[in-house]
Records
---
Amino acid sequence: MDYGRDPIFPEGFLWGASSAAWQVEGGVAEGGRTPAIIDLNSKTKKPYADNSIAADHYHHWKEDVQLMAECGFTSYRFSLAWPRIIPTSDGKINPEGIQFYNDLIDELLAHNITPIVTLYHYDMPVWVDELGGWRDRRVIELFDHYVRVCFEAFGDRVKYWLSINEQNMQIVYGKWLGLDKGCADWEKDKWRINHIMNLCHAKAVIACHELVEGGKIGPVPGYVPIYPESCKPLDQIAAMNAEELTEKIWNDLYAFREYSGFVKQYWKLHDIDPDIRPGDMELIGQAKIDYFALNCYRSNVAKDCPKEESYLELALNKEGKKGQFVYPKFPGEYALAPNPYVETTDWDWEIDPVAMRYMLRYVWDHYRLPMMITENGLGAHEQVGPDGQVHDANRIAFLRDQIYQVGLAIEDGCEVIGYNPWSFTDLLSTGNGMAKRYGLVYINTTDEETLDLRRIPKDSFYWYSRLIRSNGRDW
Ligand code: BG6
């Protein structure tokens, strides 16, 4: 539909931005925090960048919240670091970790900024990993203990909770994120790991409803809408296969609390045992989510890939030089292909604002649950200009187009309660450290050299501020 006028955002819409603990905090050996698996990755696995300082939010949190307030934020999405809260295997709570987040939450609330809190965003404590991490069912009780501590400590003030960030992407890109450690056959083992993660998600949902008065909790799928390459009927089925195998299997489980016929058939066909034990599905059955938090940056195109074709492994663009992404082929399921209708970033991510509207309509049509955007943004090479400012016109154009499509989806009848792009300040990218910047606020440091970590609001900060203050009218 063309509405013939700019979209209208509802009153009370949550306007903010996002971050994750390991990507923004630094202070990894301070305040009683112990190492996380991601700390080890970032030291050994190039091009991950060392996260021991990151954006140094651990020491700049007050200044950062002040900047959010100046921008006019009404929400801020961030994650809690499990190894800051439960640093050791005896399960003892670290009072300094609790204090850090208490101070942050209180400061946000003092500025009328609603905290939206992710329980898990890739920083599993090393002590949990040594017990087997997501591979071992003992993690279910350990995670349950951790989330209960969080709900009890912060649930009086935090009402919006998120369980596990991008569980689907952690499984789909498990090799890239190091989840395949200790797995003999990742393609089969990942479904067992995924089932354990589903049980952890369920524990978090149940505990939130038990312990947080008025608490709402949802999952955070990483969402990449997939279009068929052509109107050839088999391209449509390929797009549906890709959709199932990268996102729908997860979203169906969260929303309907049972595994879909598609995934059960997939397991049968590939001789996969996800190790579902008595009582598991009853637990999942109790985990009724309140909303979907959605991370969406780009779209993909899928085409038919007959069984006879050869498998081709996906290769991510790790340097920010266009043209390095390798479109994978999964014979008998689908192949990904370039989209001639959209531009791409330097990391070969499709710049496709319409995908945002597509995703919101798709998720609304399938699940009829409120939705919140918890990530969306442009990763770019950036420097401070000779005038001491950062002129990120590309980011303004990106955000404007994307937010406009959120507005159109709202006009289309979708219930969307907030928009929190990635990211507030520059922070470490999972793919390229500080070389790939997403922030509305520049952090003066690089992967090669730690500089003064000065905060410099970019042009996008001022543009976004005007948009927020007009509740989405001043484009
Ligand atoms: C999301 C993650 O997948 O994408 C974030 O939740 C991540 O942690 C973001 O930073 C952007 O990806 P990247 O690889 O550019 O950092």
---
Amino acid sequence: MKNPMPQPAKARLDQTLRRLQIIAPLILLATATVYALWSEFSLSPQPANWARGAVALGLFGVFGAALSWFALRRLRHEIATASQSDHARVSEHILAAITADSADAIILLDKHDLIQSWNQGAEMLFGYRAAEIIGQPFATLVPPDLSDESERLNKMVYAQGMARGWITRRVTRDGRQITVDLTRTLLRDEQGAIIGSSAILRDITEREQNAQQTRELNRQLETQVAQRTRELAASNQELRRRQRELENANAELQELDTLKSEFVSLVSHELRAPLANVSGSLELLLANDNQLTAHQRELLTLANNQAARLARLVRGILNISRIEAGQTLLQLQAFDLAPLLERICSQWQFCDPDHTYRADVASNLPSVWADRDRIEEVLTNLLENAFKYSDPATEIRVRAETRAAEMLITVSDRGRGIQTEDLQRIFDKFYRTERGDARQTYGHGLGLYISIKLVEAMGGRLWAESEQNQGTTFYFTLPLAGHVGITPGHASAH
Ligand code: ADP
């Protein structure tokens, strides 16, 4: 195709011609006027002939000017018309190129729905070459099960002039079914008579498959969620049932615990009085020195020691059942700790001359806020352990010093020490590091449990540090009297 003149050049040419259309007649008119005047006055020796001058002027000036004006107008019109038809041809060409190369199938049908044109996109989509399909009915592409639907679509196109975005299936040359997005448009000539229709088909098989897969996945997901929800509801129900069972079992356990505490308390009380009698009688017999043989004395001393141990165990169990029932009443008061520590150390030194007991207490210690008897009980437990778990001839030391708003009391020995993994557990009820046949020292694992409960009830803390074969130090704190904002009174240990 010949290259048409570009639009801006055409506009410039038209503007020049428009200017010329005005200027050229004016110049012609002016030239004819000047020539007529000049020829009448200068060239001719005869007097001026006005009629001849007017004819010349009219002929060349007016008629010539008008002629040039019309000629230029005609020229402009011709150029404009030629430009328009150029433009139309270009548009048509571009449209044809787009249609031919489009990836969508663009098919032209006559009014009997016979295929008239078949672009490259249609070839690729359906596999038919233009030569073999042109002239065939459009229904060739419709799968047998969709012929009714195709009929309906046709009726709709002829009734409404267009059907857009129709998702349907069509069949290819090799019998494959593809999903297409179909748009049909009715075509009319200039007088409005129907001359056929166009069909544009876009292959959306992959898109539909993806959508189908997504729908399927969604469905599966929903099924799974529903399944899980059902399972969760079931396990929730099961959990609630178990919880109820646990609550019932707990209530039963609590009842049993109360029964046990009552029983332990009852038995301990019942044991305490006879034990006191046994001890008293044994001590009386032992005091009666002269009438006993050495063997009898030995047996009585042994029995007395066992009775004392039993009494201690009973006391311990009673203590625990009181603590656990919250019945341990504490007589809290401000008192000076130093005399108590010194007295206890002296007593232990008297009973156990093998160890060296040392009370290391500053002279001007502030008063503590605690129950004096309970502190004595705690110290007795700690010193008894130091005595039991360290070799004779080693030192057992008791110290007291103030730390911030607290009194820090330490009991240290140079004994065998406690392994790190046991350090936390020694405060548990009945916990002993010596178990089974390995037992070398007598004990029930109650002393530290009772001690920590009592110290905590008095607002302090109890802990231990130890190094294997180097010794153990127990620390406990007590509030200073000046730092507790309460008046003397009672508290209870739990
Ligand atoms: P027990 O009557 O057995 O001494 P305790 O509650 O007083 O009960 O102590 C618990 C365990 O902690 C003891 O069995 C012992 O193994 C360990 N223990 C306590 N004090 C010491 C210590 N000073 N040295 C080494 N081990 C200790």
---
Amino acid sequence: VHQLTVKDIMAKYHRRNPISMVTAYDYITASWAQNANSDMILVGDSVAMCSLGYESTTQLSLDEFQYHVGAVCRAPGPAFVVVDMPFGSFERSISDGIGNAFQLLHLNPKVQAVKVECGLSQDDYSLEYIKELVRRGISVIGHIGLTPQRVHSLGGYKAQGGQQSTDAVALYNVSQTLQQIGCFGIVLECIPHKISSVITDKLHIPTIGIGAGPDTSGQVLVQSDVLGMLPGHKPKFVKMFADFKKDAVSALSQYVQEVHDKSFPHIGHHTFKVNDEVYQDFI
Ligand code: KIV
Ligand code: NA
């Protein structure tokens, strides 16, 4: 199967066709995303919360993440595959961060790009790091706005850039810098739609929005949100396209009930036959 490339993604962007991206965390969710024809699959560090039960993406180790990246990559299909650089995997030093990016790429040849969360100051370390990745020929997507790895310094999970004009300007400026240092795309997370619309307009690389309105070049959602897999708070920007949790619990309850009342398994539908002679000898 031909896997979409950066060139294909840019061609779609230049045709002004919206780009679709969804997260995947393992072989199953990646197979679904591939079968659904998503342009891009993101192995997000949201795997920490959405699959592993952690409270924050900051708790995810690179080794744990690798295990999930490997499983996603074993699902065949044409989607462009992007992986997050998890918290702590790139901040210690440039050489440490470069080494970890190469490790992810070495072990998973299907991975075509990495995504890096960025702060809004022009001297943010992430910008230096991205520059060094790009210099080495690694394709990078920047991520600005609500960057969950920085939840503490941002003061919680909340929309960014809508309260003070300096914040909106900082978002704009860093989007320009990310383009300048060679990112081929930028994720905009939880940014007022009018701000992300202007940011998108002024760039010549695609923006992929989550909680950033309809005017970004593409959209990304977390698969467990799309499918309604998890209980609990649903962020405002999420549209739940299915109710898997409800369907799963109902199906499993029925199974448990049928085990208890012995209506499953059914002799005939779910059983194997034994040759009569074999059976006579056996007893
Ligand atoms: O980890 C993730 O799922 C993400 C998306 C929300 C963009 O970074
Ligand atoms: Na992420």
